[in-house]
Design a protein that fits this description.
Number of strands: 12
CATH class of the largest domain: Alpha Beta
Helix content: 40-55%
Largest sheet: 6 strands, mixed
CATH topology of the largest domain: Rossmann fold
Shape: elongated
Strand content: 15-25%
Structural class: alpha/beta
Distance between the termini: 206 Å
Number of helices: 8
Order of helices and strands: HEHHEEEEEEHHEEEHHEEH
Strand order of the largest sheet: 7-8-9-10-11-12
């Protein structure tokens, strides 16, 4: 019995040894695999922690920026603190501010200069408006009105300034010097507007001697006008021809004055010509009596 028990381990010895070695090898491989996986797991965990930290920092920064913006937009730095209007002559500051649609303490950054310019330029006598913003809180409105080209006298005897677009402005200063032509008898407003637009493009020096302009339409020339000079001449021309013909009348007048002709009609239509005023009857009679007296003296 004892002999047989001893023989069994002898027969199984090599197999058991292989099993043990295989088990030990597997244990070693498991340890090696585990040792290789640990750094990878650590890297994944580190990346996850880094992403979480960045997200948290971003959210904190966003939160503080939001708080700062809320504080800023509720402070005086985000509001309009002054509105300055420059260049206006006839339009009051109150009218311009009302047309602009902005007021003090409005949000500075919500104001659109382009929209303000459009609203102000809707005022009839304003030609152009430029709006600029200057931080903090300052708004500048630069106004250009249509230029003054002539005057009119109302039925009440008050002078009005006539601007380049044909609009009229009552002059509050009654002591104004009338240094531009006076328009009289203008019922056709479209023709009057054409005249004022034309006058705006003529230098003041060429209009200095013109005291009055009246409409004088005819079938051939619907836009014909009659101008009166301070040197007692009349000038007949048209609105269309005025920019060209206005350069001609001064030499004609100077030439007539040199010849002691103190008045007459200057026609500046298709042909430029001068027509002297007819002699008054008294002058003719006086010249006739003088001629008779001279004849008697000769006899």
């Amino acid at each position: 019995m004892s002999a047989s028990r001893l023989s069994v381990p002898a027969q199984q010895g090599p197999t058991a040894g292989m099993v043990i070695e295989l088990s030990q090898a597997m244990v070693v491989m498991d340890k090696m695999a585990a040792s290789q996986n640990i750094p990878a797991m650590r890297k994944v965990q580190a990346k996850t922690k880094s992403r979480s930290s960045r997200r948290l920092i971003f959210l904190l920064i966003l939160f503080f920026i939001t708080i700062l913006l809320l504080l800023f937009f509720h402070s005086s730095y985000s509001r309009i603190t002054s509105i300055e209007i420059l260049g206006q002559i006839y339009v009051s500051e109150e009218s311009i501010k009302e047309a602009s649609g902005i007021e003090l303490n409005d949000h500075f950054f919500l104001v659109s200069p382009e929209k303000i310019e459009e609203r102000i330029e809707a005022i009839e006598i304003i030609k152009d408006a430029v709006v600029t913003k200057q931080f903090p809180g300052r708004v500048f409105i630069d106004i250009e009105e249509y230029p003054e080209v002539a005057y009119e006298i109302t039925p009440e005897g008050r002078p009005e300034a006539i601007l380049a677009n044909g609009s009229a402005v009552i002059l509050t200063d009654q002591s104004v010097i009338i240094d531009k032509p006076i328009l009289s008898g203008w019922v056709d407003q479209e023709m009057k507007r054409r005249l004022t637009e034309t006058l705006a493009n003529i230098p003041d020096s060429l209009l200095a001697d013109i005291s009055e302009i009246k409409p004088n339409p005819s079938r051939s020339y619907p836009d014909k006008i009659m101008m009166y000079t301070r040197s007692f001449f009349q000038i007949e021309t048209t609105i269309e021809k005025l920019p060209e013909k206005i350069k001609v009348y001064r030499p004609i007048i100077e030439d007539q004055l040199e010849q002691n002709v103190n008045g007459g009609m200057i026609s500046l239509l298709e042909i430029d010509r001068f027509i002297p005023y007819p002699e008054p009857e008294e002058t003719k009679a006086d010249s006739g009596e003088g001629a008779e007296a001279q004849a008697e003296q000769r006899d």
